[in-house]
Amino acid sequence: MIEIREPGTAGSLIDFDLVEPFYTGVEAVWTDETLDWVVYVSHHWTVEVSGTLVPRLQALWPDLDDWRWTAPDWY
Question: Which of 4, 22, 28, 61 pairs as cysteine with 11 (C-beta 3.0–4.6 A)?
């Protein structure tokens, strides 16, 4: 797995068990060599998930929609 954290540090290869997908004071991105999925934690105290992880997350988290942010109409 690849981990990239700010500020501008080089990416690191890390063991999957070491991933901590939450905001620790620096933004971070995790993915693998396929780039089929990405997890991103931001200074907004959010965790974004994309790619092939989305259907798996939806299957494991039945009330996922309760946690999604939806942009207001004026946005």
Answer: 4
| Alpha carbons 12 and 57: distance in angstroms, whole number | 25
Quote the strand ranges of 1-46, DSSP E: 2-5, 12-13, 28-31, 37-41
| 28-51 confidence digits (pLDDT tens) | 888 888 999 999 988 887 888 899
Kindly state whether residue 36 falls inside one of the protein's structural domains: yes
Q: What angle do CA 51, 17, 69 make, to 5 degrees?
A: 40
Number of domains forming the structure of the chain: 1
Q: Is 61 a member of any domain? A: yes
Name the residue range of residue 59's domain.
Answer: 2-67
Q: What is the pTM of this model?
A: 0.71
Structure tokens at 6: 């700010």
Which residue is it, tokens 């946690």? 67
